[in-house]
């Protein structure tokens, strides 16, 4: 007996398409991350429809990024540098817009957590 389709299937597909769109924006907009959105989109498609997950994994650049992440191969060193610089710039620019000191501290800690994760927890992919 085949498994019943999930009631959440349309939600997962909608989330997957939205995240895929953000991922493609990240490929063309400087300073806007794309890889994380593609990874999340692949996870959403895996829950919604494996056919769309396979489509995303078959994209020339995107599929390799997702496969590398899933296999634990990590990020190229250049990508790590770019990601960390973007985090520093984004946090630095946005801190002036947060009026409450506690919010500024919390946002700074979020940025530091991102840098920590990228530098120490994410493996560096060797050529």
Automatic annotation (TrEMBL):
It holds the Pfam family DUF454. Signal peptide: none annotated. GO terms for cellular component: plasma membrane. InterPro entries: DUF454 (IPR007401). The chain crosses the membrane at residues 12-45, 101-120. Keywords: Membrane, Transmembrane, Transmembrane helix. PANTHER family: INNER MEMBRANE PROTEIN YBAN. This is DUF454 domain-containing protein. It comes from Deinococcus cavernae.
